[in-house]
Amino acid sequence: MSGVRAEWPLYEVFVRGKRGLNHVHVGSLHAPDDEMAVRHARDVYTRRSEGVSIWVVRSDAITASSPDEKDPMFAPSADKVYRHPTFYDIPDDVPHM
Amino acid sequence: MVSTGPTDEQPDTDNPYAGLLGGDPSHWAFGIAAYDAQSADPLAGVDATLPDGVDRRDLATYAVMLADDALVMSHRLSQWCSNAPDLEEDIALANTALDLLGQARLLLARAAAADPSVVPALPEGSPVLPEDALAYFREAGDFRNVRLAEVEDRDFADVVVRLLVFSTWRLALLERLRGSRDSVLAAVAAKGVKELAYHRDYAGRWFLTLAQGTDESRARTVAALDRIWPLRSELTDVHDVEARVADCGVGVDPSTVSAEVDAVLAQVFAVSDVVRPDASPLAGVHGRKGRDGLHTEALSRMLAEMQVVARAHPMGRW
Protein backbone atom coordinates (compact mmCIF):
# COMPACT_ATOMS: atom_id res chain seq x y z
CA MET A 1 0.00 0.00 0.00
CA SER A 2 1.35 3.44 -0.91
CA GLY A 3 1.61 6.39 1.40
CA VAL A 4 2.59 4.29 4.40
CA ARG A 5 5.09 5.98 6.68
CA ALA A 6 6.96 4.70 9.66
CA GLU A 7 6.06 7.74 11.77
CA TRP A 8 2.73 9.31 12.58
CA PRO A 9 2.45 13.00 11.74
CA LEU A 10 3.14 15.54 14.44
CA TYR A 11 0.31 17.69 15.81
CA GLU A 12 0.40 20.88 17.84
CA VAL A 13 -2.07 20.95 20.72
CA PHE A 14 -3.98 23.98 22.01
CA VAL A 15 -6.03 23.77 25.19
CA ARG A 16 -8.47 26.23 26.68
CA GLY A 17 -8.37 26.04 30.44
CA LYS A 18 -11.35 26.04 32.71
CA ARG A 19 -10.96 29.72 33.50
CA GLY A 20 -9.19 30.53 30.28
CA LEU A 21 -10.30 32.80 27.49
CA ASN A 22 -8.02 31.59 24.73
CA HIS A 23 -6.71 28.32 23.49
CA VAL A 24 -3.08 28.14 24.50
CA HIS A 25 -0.37 26.03 22.94
CA VAL A 26 0.56 23.32 25.42
CA GLY A 27 2.74 20.97 23.39
CA SER A 28 2.75 18.50 20.57
CA LEU A 29 2.13 14.81 19.97
CA HIS A 30 1.94 12.17 17.27
CA ALA A 31 -1.32 10.72 16.01
CA PRO A 32 -2.46 8.68 13.00
CA ASP A 33 -5.15 11.19 12.03
CA ASP A 34 -6.93 14.36 13.13
CA GLU A 35 -9.62 12.64 15.19
CA MET A 36 -7.15 10.45 17.05
CA ALA A 37 -5.02 13.55 17.66
CA VAL A 38 -7.90 15.10 19.62
CA ARG A 39 -8.21 11.95 21.69
CA HIS A 40 -4.50 11.72 22.32
CA ALA A 41 -4.48 15.37 23.34
CA ARG A 42 -7.28 14.63 25.80
CA ASP A 43 -5.24 11.81 27.31
CA VAL A 44 -1.85 13.49 27.27
CA TYR A 45 -2.66 17.11 28.12
CA THR A 46 -5.96 17.22 30.02
CA ARG A 47 -5.66 14.32 32.45
CA ARG A 48 -5.87 16.58 35.50
CA SER A 49 -8.89 18.50 34.25
CA GLU A 50 -6.78 21.31 32.81
CA GLY A 51 -9.02 21.95 29.86
CA VAL A 52 -12.53 22.30 28.57
CA SER A 53 -11.70 22.59 24.88
CA ILE A 54 -8.97 21.21 22.62
CA TRP A 55 -7.68 22.26 19.23
CA VAL A 56 -5.16 20.24 17.27
CA VAL A 57 -3.43 21.17 14.04
CA ARG A 58 -0.88 19.34 11.94
CA SER A 59 2.49 20.88 12.66
CA ASP A 60 3.30 20.97 8.96
CA ALA A 61 0.23 23.17 8.43
CA ILE A 62 1.76 25.92 10.51
CA THR A 63 3.72 28.66 8.78
CA ALA A 64 6.19 30.22 11.19
CA SER A 65 8.42 33.22 11.11
CA SER A 66 12.06 32.39 10.66
CA PRO A 67 14.67 33.10 13.35
CA ASP A 68 16.87 34.59 10.59
CA GLU A 69 14.30 37.33 10.11
CA LYS A 70 14.26 38.23 13.77
CA ASP A 71 15.77 41.68 13.37
CA PRO A 72 13.72 42.93 10.42
CA MET A 73 10.57 41.40 11.91
CA PHE A 74 10.79 42.48 15.51
CA ALA A 75 13.60 44.90 16.26
CA PRO A 76 11.85 48.00 14.82
CA SER A 77 9.10 47.74 17.41
CA ALA A 78 11.47 47.88 20.35
CA ASP A 79 11.96 51.64 20.61
CA LYS A 80 8.47 53.00 19.93
CA VAL A 81 7.13 53.62 23.37
CA TYR A 82 4.19 55.64 21.99
CA ARG A 83 2.70 52.45 20.62
CA HIS A 84 2.03 51.19 24.12
CA PRO A 85 -1.20 52.54 25.58
CA THR A 86 0.43 53.05 28.96
CA PHE A 87 -0.57 56.69 29.23
CA TYR A 88 -4.14 55.83 30.12
CA ASP A 89 -5.56 54.77 33.46
CA ILE A 90 -7.39 51.53 33.04
CA PRO A 91 -10.60 51.42 35.08
CA ASP A 92 -10.65 48.74 37.77
CA ASP A 93 -13.70 47.03 36.34
CA VAL A 94 -12.14 46.33 32.96
CA PRO A 95 -10.94 42.73 33.09
CA HIS A 96 -8.42 40.91 30.95
CA MET A 97 -6.27 43.89 29.90
CA MET B 1 -0.73 48.26 28.32
CA VAL B 2 2.60 46.66 29.01
CA SER B 3 1.91 43.21 30.29
CA THR B 4 2.74 42.88 33.93
CA GLY B 5 1.96 39.19 34.12
CA PRO B 6 -0.64 37.64 36.33
CA THR B 7 -1.31 39.19 39.69
CA ASP B 8 -3.47 38.14 42.60
CA GLU B 9 -6.30 40.36 41.40
CA GLN B 10 -5.95 39.26 37.83
CA PRO B 11 -5.73 35.51 37.41
CA ASP B 12 -3.69 34.19 34.52
CA THR B 13 -6.60 33.17 32.37
CA ASP B 14 -4.44 32.20 29.44
CA ASN B 15 -2.58 29.34 31.02
CA PRO B 16 -4.57 26.12 31.35
CA TYR B 17 -2.08 24.86 33.91
CA ALA B 18 -2.24 27.94 36.13
CA GLY B 19 -4.16 27.41 39.30
CA LEU B 20 -3.84 23.69 38.98
CA LEU B 21 -2.10 23.39 42.30
CA GLY B 22 -4.82 25.36 43.95
CA GLY B 23 -6.10 23.30 46.81
CA ASP B 24 -8.83 21.43 44.94
CA PRO B 25 -9.15 18.31 47.11
CA SER B 26 -9.45 16.11 44.02
CA HIS B 27 -5.83 17.02 43.26
CA TRP B 28 -4.46 15.01 46.16
CA ALA B 29 -2.37 12.95 43.78
CA PHE B 30 0.19 15.66 43.33
CA GLY B 31 0.68 16.14 46.97
CA ILE B 32 -1.17 19.33 47.88
CA ALA B 33 -3.57 17.85 50.33
CA ALA B 34 -2.24 14.92 52.26
CA TYR B 35 -4.19 11.93 51.09
CA ASP B 36 -4.26 8.98 53.41
CA ALA B 37 -5.46 5.89 51.58
CA GLN B 38 -5.44 3.94 54.82
CA SER B 39 -8.11 6.07 56.41
CA ALA B 40 -9.95 7.51 53.41
CA ASP B 41 -13.28 5.81 52.91
CA PRO B 42 -13.76 5.30 49.16
CA LEU B 43 -17.53 5.28 49.66
CA ALA B 44 -17.60 8.49 51.70
CA GLY B 45 -20.68 10.57 51.05
CA VAL B 46 -22.77 7.81 49.49
CA ASP B 47 -25.62 6.11 51.31
CA ALA B 48 -24.30 2.60 51.89
CA THR B 49 -27.31 1.08 53.62
CA LEU B 50 -28.50 -2.20 52.17
CA PRO B 51 -31.64 -1.84 50.02
CA ASP B 52 -34.68 -3.84 51.19
CA GLY B 53 -35.25 -7.26 49.79
CA VAL B 54 -31.71 -8.01 48.59
CA ASP B 55 -29.58 -10.79 50.01
CA ARG B 56 -26.33 -9.24 51.26
CA ARG B 57 -24.30 -12.14 49.92
CA ASP B 58 -25.85 -11.72 46.48
CA LEU B 59 -25.19 -7.99 46.47
CA ALA B 60 -21.56 -8.56 47.51
CA THR B 61 -21.05 -11.26 44.88
CA TYR B 62 -22.59 -9.09 42.19
CA ALA B 63 -20.35 -6.16 43.15
CA VAL B 64 -17.35 -8.51 43.01
CA MET B 65 -18.36 -9.64 39.51
CA LEU B 66 -18.50 -6.07 38.20
CA ALA B 67 -15.32 -5.20 40.10
CA ASP B 68 -13.35 -8.17 38.80
CA ASP B 69 -14.26 -7.37 35.20
CA ALA B 70 -12.80 -3.90 35.73
CA LEU B 71 -9.82 -5.00 37.81
CA VAL B 72 -8.63 -7.74 35.49
CA MET B 73 -9.20 -5.68 32.35
CA SER B 74 -7.38 -2.80 34.01
CA HIS B 75 -4.35 -4.95 34.73
CA ARG B 76 -4.24 -6.28 31.19
CA LEU B 77 -4.41 -2.72 29.85
CA SER B 78 -1.68 -1.53 32.18
CA GLN B 79 0.59 -4.23 30.78
CA TRP B 80 0.59 -2.19 27.57
CA CYS B 81 2.31 0.71 29.25
CA SER B 82 5.69 1.07 27.48
CA ASN B 83 4.67 -1.60 24.95
CA ALA B 84 2.07 0.23 22.85
CA PRO B 85 2.88 1.43 19.30
CA ASP B 86 3.60 4.96 20.49
CA LEU B 87 3.96 6.95 23.70
CA GLU B 88 0.53 8.46 23.13
CA GLU B 89 -1.09 5.01 23.17
CA ASP B 90 0.82 4.07 26.33
CA ILE B 91 -0.80 7.03 28.02
CA ALA B 92 -4.25 6.45 26.53
CA LEU B 93 -4.34 2.81 27.62
CA ALA B 94 -2.93 3.61 31.05
CA ASN B 95 -5.65 6.26 31.49
CA THR B 96 -8.28 3.71 30.62
CA ALA B 97 -6.72 1.21 33.00
CA LEU B 98 -6.84 3.78 35.81
CA ASP B 99 -10.51 4.55 35.14
CA LEU B 100 -11.34 0.87 35.44
CA LEU B 101 -9.16 0.45 38.51
CA GLY B 102 -11.10 3.25 40.17
CA GLN B 103 -14.37 1.50 39.39
CA ALA B 104 -12.96 -1.76 40.74
CA ARG B 105 -11.91 -0.15 44.00
CA LEU B 106 -15.36 1.32 44.66
CA LEU B 107 -17.11 -1.91 43.75
CA LEU B 108 -14.84 -4.07 45.90
CA ALA B 109 -15.35 -1.67 48.79
CA ARG B 110 -19.09 -2.00 48.20
CA ALA B 111 -18.82 -5.79 48.28
CA ALA B 112 -16.87 -5.72 51.54
CA ALA B 113 -19.34 -3.30 53.14
CA ALA B 114 -22.37 -5.32 52.02
CA ASP B 115 -21.02 -8.64 53.26
CA PRO B 116 -17.71 -8.57 55.17
CA SER B 117 -17.52 -12.37 54.99
CA VAL B 118 -16.43 -12.17 51.33
CA VAL B 119 -13.15 -10.52 52.35
CA PRO B 120 -10.22 -12.95 52.63
CA ALA B 121 -8.82 -13.35 56.14
CA LEU B 122 -5.47 -11.65 56.77
CA PRO B 123 -3.12 -11.87 59.76
CA GLU B 124 -4.29 -10.13 62.92
CA GLY B 125 -3.52 -6.41 62.81
CA SER B 126 -2.95 -6.26 59.05
CA PRO B 127 -3.56 -2.72 57.78
CA VAL B 128 -4.65 -4.00 54.34
CA LEU B 129 -7.96 -2.41 53.33
CA PRO B 130 -10.89 -4.72 52.56
CA GLU B 131 -10.91 -3.75 48.87
CA ASP B 132 -7.17 -4.47 48.65
CA ALA B 133 -7.62 -7.80 50.41
CA LEU B 134 -10.22 -8.72 47.81
CA ALA B 135 -7.99 -7.63 44.94
CA TYR B 136 -4.73 -9.15 46.12
CA PHE B 137 -5.53 -12.09 48.36
CA ARG B 138 -8.02 -14.13 46.36
CA GLU B 139 -7.13 -17.10 44.17
CA ALA B 140 -8.06 -17.25 40.48
CA GLY B 141 -10.99 -19.52 41.31
CA ASP B 142 -12.52 -16.79 43.47
CA PHE B 143 -12.44 -14.24 40.67
CA ARG B 144 -15.81 -13.69 39.02
CA ASN B 145 -14.77 -11.75 35.91
CA VAL B 146 -15.85 -12.71 32.42
CA ARG B 147 -13.06 -14.44 30.51
CA LEU B 148 -12.92 -11.67 27.89
CA ALA B 149 -11.24 -9.49 30.52
CA GLU B 150 -8.41 -11.91 31.26
CA VAL B 151 -7.08 -13.17 27.92
CA GLU B 152 -3.62 -12.06 26.94
CA ASP B 153 -3.17 -9.60 24.07
CA ARG B 154 -0.79 -10.73 21.35
CA ASP B 155 -0.74 -7.46 19.45
CA PHE B 156 -2.29 -4.01 19.42
CA ALA B 157 -5.25 -5.21 17.35
CA ASP B 158 -6.10 -7.65 20.15
CA VAL B 159 -6.33 -4.96 22.78
CA VAL B 160 -8.33 -2.67 20.47
CA VAL B 161 -10.88 -5.40 19.70
CA ARG B 162 -11.07 -6.53 23.31
CA LEU B 163 -11.52 -2.99 24.59
CA LEU B 164 -14.16 -2.29 21.95
CA VAL B 165 -16.26 -5.31 22.90
CA PHE B 166 -15.65 -4.89 26.63
CA SER B 167 -16.46 -1.17 26.80
CA THR B 168 -19.51 -1.48 24.53
CA TRP B 169 -20.91 -4.14 26.85
CA ARG B 170 -19.95 -2.49 30.11
CA LEU B 171 -21.27 0.89 29.00
CA ALA B 172 -24.65 -0.69 28.21
CA LEU B 173 -24.65 -2.40 31.62
CA LEU B 174 -23.68 0.69 33.60
CA GLU B 175 -26.21 2.87 31.78
CA ARG B 176 -28.92 0.62 33.21
CA LEU B 177 -27.20 0.20 36.56
CA ARG B 178 -27.58 3.95 37.18
CA GLY B 179 -31.14 3.10 38.14
CA SER B 180 -30.07 0.56 40.76
CA ARG B 181 -31.84 0.63 44.12
CA ASP B 182 -28.42 0.36 45.69
CA SER B 183 -27.12 3.94 46.00
CA VAL B 184 -23.48 2.88 45.77
CA LEU B 185 -23.91 0.82 42.60
CA ALA B 186 -25.97 3.64 41.09
CA ALA B 187 -23.23 6.17 41.93
CA VAL B 188 -20.43 3.98 40.58
CA ALA B 189 -22.43 3.46 37.40
CA ALA B 190 -23.10 7.17 36.94
CA LYS B 191 -19.38 7.89 37.23
CA GLY B 192 -18.42 4.94 35.04
CA VAL B 193 -20.74 5.75 32.16
CA LYS B 194 -18.73 8.85 31.22
CA GLU B 195 -15.49 6.91 31.41
CA LEU B 196 -16.78 3.96 29.40
CA ALA B 197 -18.23 6.22 26.73
CA TYR B 198 -14.72 7.51 26.10
CA HIS B 199 -13.17 4.03 26.16
CA ARG B 200 -15.67 2.84 23.58
CA ASP B 201 -15.07 5.87 21.40
CA TYR B 202 -11.29 5.39 21.59
CA ALA B 203 -11.47 1.67 20.78
CA GLY B 204 -14.06 2.19 18.04
CA ARG B 205 -11.91 4.78 16.30
CA TRP B 206 -8.88 2.56 16.49
CA PHE B 207 -10.87 -0.39 15.16
CA LEU B 208 -11.91 1.68 12.14
CA THR B 209 -8.39 3.04 11.65
CA LEU B 210 -6.80 -0.39 11.77
CA ALA B 211 -9.47 -2.08 9.65
CA GLN B 212 -9.23 0.62 6.99
CA GLY B 213 -5.45 1.03 7.28
CA THR B 214 -2.84 -1.14 5.62
CA ASP B 215 -3.34 -4.73 4.46
CA GLU B 216 -1.32 -5.79 7.49
CA SER B 217 -3.34 -3.80 10.04
CA ARG B 218 -6.60 -5.01 8.50
CA ALA B 219 -5.53 -8.66 8.51
CA ARG B 220 -4.46 -8.41 12.15
CA THR B 221 -7.71 -6.72 13.16
CA VAL B 222 -9.82 -9.38 11.49
CA ALA B 223 -7.68 -12.09 13.10
CA ALA B 224 -8.06 -10.46 16.51
CA LEU B 225 -11.83 -10.26 16.09
CA ASP B 226 -11.98 -13.94 15.13
CA ARG B 227 -9.93 -14.86 18.16
CA ILE B 228 -11.94 -12.78 20.62
CA TRP B 229 -15.44 -13.36 19.28
CA PRO B 230 -15.94 -16.75 21.03
CA LEU B 231 -15.82 -14.77 24.30
CA ARG B 232 -18.65 -12.42 23.27
CA SER B 233 -21.63 -14.57 24.21
CA GLU B 234 -20.46 -15.12 27.79
CA LEU B 235 -20.90 -11.38 28.37
CA THR B 236 -24.66 -11.62 28.14
CA ASP B 237 -25.10 -15.00 29.85
CA VAL B 238 -27.06 -14.67 33.07
CA HIS B 239 -25.61 -16.07 36.27
CA ASP B 240 -28.04 -16.98 39.08
CA VAL B 241 -26.72 -14.16 41.23
CA GLU B 242 -27.20 -11.65 38.40
CA ALA B 243 -30.75 -12.89 37.86
CA ARG B 244 -31.59 -12.50 41.55
CA VAL B 245 -30.12 -9.00 41.98
CA ALA B 246 -31.83 -7.94 38.75
CA ASP B 247 -35.14 -9.25 40.04
CA CYS B 248 -35.00 -7.03 43.08
CA GLY B 249 -33.97 -3.91 41.15
CA VAL B 250 -30.39 -3.80 42.41
CA GLY B 251 -28.52 -5.28 39.45
CA VAL B 252 -28.84 -5.53 35.69
CA ASP B 253 -29.74 -8.70 33.83
CA PRO B 254 -26.90 -8.90 31.25
CA SER B 255 -29.14 -10.57 28.67
CA THR B 256 -31.11 -7.32 28.42
CA VAL B 257 -28.12 -5.50 26.90
CA SER B 258 -27.33 -8.16 24.30
CA ALA B 259 -29.25 -6.56 21.44
CA GLU B 260 -27.75 -3.13 22.15
CA VAL B 261 -24.20 -4.54 22.25
CA ASP B 262 -24.71 -6.29 18.93
CA ALA B 263 -26.25 -3.20 17.37
CA VAL B 264 -23.37 -0.95 18.41
CA LEU B 265 -20.77 -3.46 17.24
CA ALA B 266 -22.65 -3.96 13.96
CA GLN B 267 -22.34 -0.21 13.36
CA VAL B 268 -18.58 -0.26 13.94
CA PHE B 269 -18.18 -3.34 11.74
CA ALA B 270 -20.24 -1.73 8.98
CA VAL B 271 -18.17 1.47 8.75
CA SER B 272 -15.00 -0.61 9.01
CA ASP B 273 -16.19 -2.99 6.31
CA VAL B 274 -15.61 -6.00 8.55
CA VAL B 275 -17.91 -9.02 8.68
CA ARG B 276 -19.16 -10.10 12.10
CA PRO B 277 -17.51 -13.45 12.90
CA ASP B 278 -19.57 -16.56 13.12
CA ALA B 279 -17.45 -18.44 15.67
CA SER B 280 -19.20 -20.56 18.26
CA PRO B 281 -18.91 -19.49 21.91
CA LEU B 282 -16.01 -20.68 24.06
CA ALA B 283 -17.55 -23.44 26.14
CA GLY B 284 -17.39 -23.55 29.90
CA VAL B 285 -16.46 -26.60 31.94
CA HIS B 286 -19.59 -28.41 33.10
CA GLY B 287 -21.43 -25.19 32.30
CA ARG B 288 -19.13 -23.12 34.53
CA LYS B 289 -17.57 -19.97 33.09
CA GLY B 290 -15.89 -16.81 34.34
CA ARG B 291 -18.79 -15.73 36.54
CA ASP B 292 -18.54 -19.09 38.34
CA GLY B 293 -14.81 -18.72 38.93
CA LEU B 294 -13.83 -20.96 36.01
CA HIS B 295 -11.09 -19.23 34.04
CA THR B 296 -8.51 -19.73 31.34
CA GLU B 297 -5.03 -20.44 32.62
CA ALA B 298 -3.97 -16.94 31.58
CA LEU B 299 -5.70 -15.53 34.66
CA SER B 300 -3.61 -17.35 37.26
CA ARG B 301 -0.39 -16.23 35.58
CA MET B 302 -1.66 -12.67 35.47
CA LEU B 303 -2.73 -12.73 39.11
CA ALA B 304 0.62 -14.17 40.18
CA GLU B 305 2.30 -11.07 38.81
CA MET B 306 -0.39 -8.67 40.01
CA GLN B 307 -0.55 -10.00 43.56
CA VAL B 308 3.01 -11.02 44.37
CA VAL B 309 4.13 -7.83 46.13
CA ALA B 310 0.97 -7.41 48.19
CA ARG B 311 1.06 -11.06 49.23
CA ALA B 312 4.68 -10.87 50.26
CA HIS B 313 3.76 -8.09 52.70
CA PRO B 314 0.38 -8.81 54.28
CA MET B 315 1.33 -6.44 57.10
CA GLY B 316 2.51 -3.75 54.69
CA ARG B 317 1.30 -0.19 54.79
CA TRP B 318 1.30 1.44 51.36
TrEMBL record, chain A:
Alphabetical keyword list: Oxidoreductase
Listed InterPro entries: PaaB (IPR009359), PaaB_sf (IPR038693)
Coiled coil: none
EC number(s) stated in the UniProt entry for this protein: 1.14.13.149
Superkingdom in the source lineage: Bacteria
Uppermost EC category: oxidoreductase
Protein's recorded name: 1,2-phenylacetyl-CoA epoxidase subunit B
Annotated GO MF terms: phenylacetyl-CoA 1,2-epoxidase activity
Keyword Oxidoreductase: yes
Oxidoreductase recorded as keyword: yes
Parts of the chain that traverse the membrane: none
UniProtKB/TrEMBL annotation, chain B:
Matching Pfam families: PaaA_PaaC
SUPFAM superfamilies listed in its UniProt record: Ferritin-like
EC numbers on record: 1.14.13.149
Keyword Oxidoreductase set for record: yes
Domain of life of the organism encoding this protein: Bacteria
Entries under InterPro entries matching the protein: Aromatic_CoA_ox/epox, Ferritin-like, Ferritin-like_SF, PaaA_PaaC, PaaC
Region (Disordered): 1-20
Enzyme class: oxidoreductase
NCBIfam families from the UniProt entry: PA_CoA_Oxy3 (TIGR02158)
Name the UniProt record assigns to this protein: 1,2-phenylacetyl-CoA epoxidase subunit PaaC
Organism: Mumia xiangluensis
Gene: paaC
